[in-house]
Amino acid sequence: MIFVTVGTHEQPFNRLVECIDNLKRDGVIEEEVIIQTGYSTYEPKYCTWKKLFPYQKMVKLVDEARIVITHGGPSSFIMPLQVGKTPIVVPRKYEFNEHVNDHQVAFSKAVAERMGTIYVVEDMDQLGETIKNYDEIIGGMGTGLKSNNAKFNAELNKIVDGMFRGK
Fold first, then answer.
1. Alpha helices for the chain (secondary structure H)
2. 20 to 30 Å CA-CA from 99: which of 17, 61, 150, 158?
């Protein structure tokens, strides 16, 4: 299943919602698609959709999805990261009246470059290929997240050992 969310920003994100619906219509996407359309005015014909989902339902959909596609709002792409998923992020753009400026473009690109934890698609013409090749793309990304757990545990172990040895 693919889950798409455009967040709760009051400007429509019809460009993403309609693109996903058309990819489903054209058979580019074969699996089930569920879209949270927010304030978009386009109503999908080929995908399951709802304007807004309760938070717990969103968490469940993100967890169950094979692919999560979000707009460039940090709240929307942090949730998939928290459950170990690499979201496809399609930032809203000012030129299409999807937001008040292009901060989502700049922020998404910065996170992708610095952290390597999201995959940004700015051009809707590339979204279908990205979805078709998702597993390969994500597999080749590695991840910018590095856990310090092992280092922390090793250092803590030294401290505890030292305490018992009287050092």
1. 14-25, 55-64, 74-82, 103-115, 127-132, 134-141, 149-164
2. 61
HSE (side-chain half, CA atoms, 13 Å) at 51? 8
Pairing of strands 48-50, 2-5: unpaired
Strand order in the sheet with 2-5: 48-50, 33-36, 2-5, 67-70, 88-89, 119-120
Whether 38 and 69 have beta carbons less than 8 Å apart is answered as no
> Which pair of tokens denotes residue 76?
């929307």
**Cα separations (Å) of 23 from 45, 59, 97?**
11, 24, 22
C-alpha span between 21 and 128 (Å, rounded): 11
Interhelix angle 74-82/55-64, rounded to 10 degrees, is 50
Residue bearing tokens 């993403």 = 16
| Measured distance CA(64)–CA(68) in Å, rounded | 9
pLDDT 10s digits, 21-73: 999 999 999 999 999 999 999 999 999 999 999 999 999 999 999 999 999 98
